[in-house]
Write a structure and sequence with these properties.
With about 500 residues, the protein is an alpha/beta fold. It has two domains: about 10-265, P-loop containing nucleotide triphosphate hydrolases (Rossmann fold); about 315-490, no CATH class. About 40% of the residues lie in helices and about 15% in strands. Helix 4 (about 100-110) links the parallel strand 5 (about 90-95) and strand 6 (about 115-120). The structure holds adenosine-5'-triphosphate (ATP) and magnesium ion (MG).
């Protein structure tokens, strides 16, 4: 960069020389230039923390030089695709092409002299590295006849040339680091001029950073990045401390294409839009309706299709239904002045007493219902203490073995809600699994599930579990030792591992 103070011979120029770009202005308001031919020969490193304005700076540089030099942009976030609208860059979505295709594209863009944005948005780190490497490799390997100058801009360069092994595969890291090293160390002869930007200098491979002779240093907070910057620039640590105080959009410039002495410049405006502009602060209006149910509603369950073959209605059930309709036509003692919670507890206790009988598990619900109604009448709850539907729900809850305290928790309400959406004969199984999950108990064995299901057949118990899994209500998992866990789709509750054959 030159300026009236730095180089008096430029004072009379108010517009840029054809090979000089105006990056912005220096303190005092005069233009801050960048010498393009010099940049092509000596490369550029931009560093600054997130939000310091690196991408904006790259955009300014690209816009200013778009009509002067061919460009390739390695764009991990799809930030630069808008250059296509104004300057006609070809946007290549890396997600849509194989490495071989991208390698060919890299070579062909040089043959046809087209500016390209390689959009790597949405790919995982491994694929971003491999595909960027393929494209850069293609450009690097283009035949000598096509070695025209290309400005190769790599945003977030630490992704492609990381200083340390990360979570990516060795293969991806090797390919990508190799391509970046070629670009920065061996690219010049082939016409490739690397311009790389990074948030964290300490995360960028040293050999890649070291090949740039021009620097634009933005706001930097971390000591480790600051000392790397001071080393690279041959500055005192004390001088580098100034990077901490740089506002967004201001960079310290140094290098043959910029300025021979460190100088602070403010980057100018841009023509195309960035897609990465941060969120705009708008007046916040809290929702007027209660949002609990909107946000925490259980995930919809599929309608229970083709329910498993059910037991034919037993004579007991027919009798029970008849008995029940009889009970509701008869008058009953008035118990309406009783506290509903107390009443619910008392009824639950009655039900538990019935279920304490070992054989109760294998009696059809209708028969238990009759028994229950009789006991209710004796206890003074009248003839229609509970209708059949509510009774089935109460039975399922009682069979799960949940404690009266736990029964009052919101989780249990949610469990009952999930249970209400499966066929009635499945509800007890579901609630038993829910209780096991909430109390961190092992998944019940097939035999236990069979008993709750009202059958002696463990095969039927297993089919019931499979059916619940097919309905996307639960997920069954077997560990290496053949033990089973059950997880609930939606709330995510999970039982401990239990032996299915216990
Ligand atoms: N010189 C500038 N003039 C006006 N706005 C700017 C300038 N520099 C940056 N901005 C704005 O500040 C915001 C952050 O800038 P930018 O996206 O360039 O940061 P960055 O350093 O690339 O951050 P990240 O590392 O997170 O990608 C953007 O909305 C950008 O438009
Ligand atoms: Mg950025």
């Amino acid at each position: 960069m030159t300026s009236p103070e730095a180089a008096p011979d430029t004072e009379k120029h108010h517009t840029a020389h054809p090979s000089r770009l105006i990056l912005g202005e220096i303190t005092g308001g005069s233009a801050a230039f960048m010498d393009l031919p010099e940049l092509l020969a000596t490369r550029l490193l931009v560093q600054g923390n997130s939000g310091s304005g690196k991408s904006h700076l790259l955009r300014r540089l690209l816009e200013q030089s778009a009509r002067l030099v061919q460009q390739a942009i390695i764009d991990p976030e799809g930030d630069f695709v808008s250059l296509a609208d104004v300057y006609g860059h070809l946007v290549i979505d890396a997600a849509d092409h194989t490495e071989a295709a991208l390698q060919a594209a890299g070579e062909r863009m040089r043959v046809h002299r087209a500016s390209v944005v390689l959009n790597l948005e949405g790919l995982d780190a491994d694929l971003q590295m491999k595909r960027a490497a393929a494209f850069l490799g293609g450009m690097f390997d283009a035949p000598r006849a096509h070695w025209y100058p290309v400005l190769v801009v790599v945003d977030e360069a630490q992704l492609f040339a990381p200083s340390a092994a990360g979570e990516v595969s060795d293969e991806a890291r090797r390919a990508s680091l190799g391509a970046m090293t070629n670009l920065m160390c061996r690219g010049r002869k082939r016409g490739l001029a690397g311009v790389i930007a990074t948030q964290r200098l300490a995360k960028l491979a040293k050999n890649v950073a070291a090949e740039a002779s021009n620097f634009l240093m933005g706001r930097t907070f971390l000591d480790i990045d600051m000392s790397r910057a001071a080393d690279l620039l041959g500055m005192e640590r004390r001088q580098a401390e100034a990077f901490r105080d740089l506002p967004r959009g201001q960079f310290m410039a140094l290098g043959p294409a910029l300025s021979r002495r460190p100088m602070t410049i403010r980057i100018g405006t841009v023509e195309t839009e960035s897609r990465s502009a941060g969120p705009v602060l708008m007046p916040f209006v809290p929702p007027s309706e209660p949002v609990h149910d909107l946000i925490l509603a259980p995930l919809p369950l599929p309608e229970p299709v083709a329910p498993r073959p059910r037991r034919p209605p037993s004579p007991d059930l027919v009798e029970a239904l008849a008995a029940h309709s009889e009970t509701i036509t008869q008058s009953s003692e008035d118990t309406s002045d009783q506290d509903p919670a107390e009443r619910r507890n008392a009824l639950a206790t009655l039900l538990r007493e019935i279920l304490e009988d070992e054989e109760a598990g294998f009696r059809p619900p209708a028969s238990i219902y009759q028994d229950f109604l009789v006991r209710c009448r004796i206890a003074g709850f009248g003839r229609d203490a509970m209708d059949m539907r509510s009774f089935r729900r109460a039975l399922a809850t009682a069979r799960s073995g949940i404690s009266p305290e736990a029964e009052e928790t919101p989780q249990w309400r949610e469990a009952e809600d999930i249970a209400s959406r499966v066929p009635e004969d499945m509800q007890a199984i579901l609630l038993t699994l829910a209780r096991a999950a909430m109390e961190n108990l092992p998944c019940p064995s097939d035999r236990e599930i069979a008993r709750i299901y009202g059958t002696h057949s463990t095969g039927r118990a297993r089919r019931a579990l499979t059916w619940l899994e097919e309905q996307n209500v639960i997920v069954l998992r077997l560990d290496g030792a053949g033990r089973r866990r059950v997880a609930f789709v939606g709330p995510g509750w999970e039982t401990e591992a239990g032996n299915p054959d216990a």
